[in-house]
Design brief:
420 residues; Growth Hormone, Chain: A; 19 helices; 0% strand; globular; MFS_trans_sf; transmembrane; transmembrane transporter activity; (Mediterranean fruit fly) hypothetical protein
Length: 420
């Protein structure tokens, strides 16, 4: 198999060293210097598998699912309300940086050595996990007042004794303490109708975004880019262009995360991606060549850009603003599993499936996935930017007769109907 398949096919999976930290430490690896710790997402590109080492790949994939769920929740818990969207969108920015670095390294190293580099860097970051600070909500759930205050001081930059009397810090600390004292628990469980609705929406969102085909295109770039798209460019240059386009799209999303309306951004991005891939499928089917070949290249770049600008960047942000923590963890975990299973099937059996439906058939699948996300954003999802969780839940059809405290502490056997 060509060099790019093992590099890009596992381009965003974590290494086996993540197994030992997938439960507790994965949720705690973002400390005060969140950007430095977030660089571990760069490793997602390097953690590759050899064809004989399927067990390692499955473990890495499992840990990636756990990490993706924990990272978004942890960022939402440690960040202030104004900066939370940009920080959550940063997850995808670091992923695209990892893809770009992996592509550049793959041009000069054999992929076996790229994997060795991945393990070394991953181990270096992994040993830092025990020194990371836990979320204030973690200590609130444990009832540890001292740990809560220490964690909150850490994440709010309160280093001096005089800063501890700042009004905003005192107010936030009092809110945590009141929530710890009340231990208010929701009495009404989530209704089956609401639960099924949220499960379907989350599944369509995750599977549709993964069906945009970014990973399939990178994994099989040796066939897709050579035969039908970037004719005239080498595989190395073509993949680097795609990786750079991903990074640019994700970076712009981070810059605009606090201003973008989620519903409109997701709809426009998914619609443009779907339209671009369907047009590209038509071009491939009719065999567009010669002077019109640049149209195929432009369509692919548009698809990659908008997929990372709107779809992947909002994949973790929208559930964090729309669902409470316990429900979000369950639904996003299941949805990640199903979406990666579908992606793995499309990558692993690319040659078999493409002989049946053709390469243009693959792009039609990508277009259908993007269109499904666009329709979901248009008719199903509410606008979540700047709205409290209670209002969003009412829009989505949830009704509860009991009053739920915003600072309630989760207990076993109940679904706490709050974001944290």
């Amino acid at each position: 198999m060509d060099l790019w398949l093992p590099i890009c096919q596992r381009g965003c999976e974590l290494g086996i060293v993540r197994v030992f930290h997938s439960k507790h430490w994965t949720a705690g690896f973002i400390a005060a210097e969140w950007s430095a710790a977030n660089r571990q997402l760069v490793l997602c590109t390097f953690c590759l598998r050899h064809r004989a080492h399927l067990f390692v790949a499955h473990l890495g994939r499992f840990c990636r699912w756990r990490q993706l769920v924990c990272v978004a929740i942890y960022i939402a818990e440690i960040s202030e309300e104004s900066s939370s969207p940009a920080l959550i969108a940063t997850i995808e920015q670091w992923r695209t940086i990892g893809v770009l670095i992996g592509c550049l390294l793959g041009q000069h190293l054999q992929y076996e050595y790229v994997a060795v580099v991945a393990v070394c860097i991953s181990c270096a970051f992994t040993i830092m996990f025990p020194f990371s600070q836990e979320s204030p909500y973690y200590y609130m759930r444990k009832g540890d007042v001292m740990g809560l205050e220490k964690s909150l001081r850490w994440f709010r930059g309160v280093r001096r004794m005089s800063d501890r009397n700042r009004p905003e810090f005192v107010r936030e600390l009092d809110e945590f303490k009141r929530g710890m004292e009340r231990h208010t628990i929701a009495q009404d469980l989530v209704s089956h109708k609401y639960l099924c609705k949220m499960a379907v929406y989350t599944l369509v969102l995750f599977v549709g975004v993964q069906l945009s085909g970014t990973y399939v295109i990178l994994a099989w770039s040796n066939q897709i880019l050579t035969n039908d798209v970037f004719v005239g460019f080498s595989i190395d240059i073509s993949v680097t262009i795609l990786a750079l386009t991903q990074f640019i799209g994700a970076t712009i999303a981070v810059w605009l995360a606090t201003m973008l309306k989620r519903k409109i951004c997701l709809f426009v991005s998914a619609f443009v991606c779907g339209l671009a891939t369907i047009c590209l499928a038509i071009f491939i089917a009719v065999g567009v060549r010669g002077q019109l070949q640049w149209l195929s290249s432009a369509l692919l770049l548009i698809h990659i850009f908008f997929a990372n600008f709107g779809m992947y960047s909002l994949l973790s942000l929208i559930p964090s603003e729309m669902l409470d923590t316990k429900l979000r963890v369950s639904l996003t975990s299941i949805s990640w599993g199903v979406s990666w299973l579908v992606t793995f099937i499309l990558i692993q059996y690319f040659e078999c499936i493409s002989t049946i439906i053709g390469l243009h058939g693959y792009f039609i699948i990508f277009g259908v996935g993007c269109t499904a996300v666009a329709m979901l954003a248009l008719v199903g999802l509410p606008e979540t930017r700047g709205k409290p969780l209670d209002e969003i839940q009412q829009i989505m059809g949830f009704r509860s007769e009991s009053e739920v405290s915003k600072n309630s502490v989760p207990q076993s056997g109940r679904i706490n109907l709050e974001r944290y």
